[in-house]
Amino acid sequence: MKMVMVFDTCIVWTFLVSLFGFIFLFVLRRNNNSKKKIEKGSRQLKIQTDHVNGTEKGECSPESVTGDDVIIVGAGVAGAALAYTLGKDGRRVHVIERDLTEPDRIVGELLQPGGYLKLVELGLEDCVEEIDAQRVLGYALFKDGRNTRLSYPLEKFHTDVTGRSFHNGRFIQRMREKAATLPNVKLEQGTVTSLLEENGTIRGVQYKTKDGQELRAYAPLTIVCDGCFSNLRRSLCNSKVDVPSCFVGLVLENCELPFSNHGHVILADPSPILFYPISSTEVRCLVDVPGQRVPSIANGEMANYLKTMVAPQVPPELHDAFIAAVDKGNIRTMPNRSMPADPHPTTGALLMGDAFNMRHPLTGGGMTVALSDIVVLRDLLRPLHDLHDAASLTKYLESFYTLRKPVASTINTLAGALYKVFSASPDEARKEMRQACFDYLSLGGVFSTGPVALLSGLNPRPLTLVLHFFAVAIYGVGRLLFPFPSLQRMWFGARLISSASGIIFPIIKAEGVRQMFFPATVPALYRAPPVD
Question: Exposed (0-12), middle (13-18) or buried (19+): which is 282, by Cβ within 10 Å?
Answer without folding.
Answer: middle
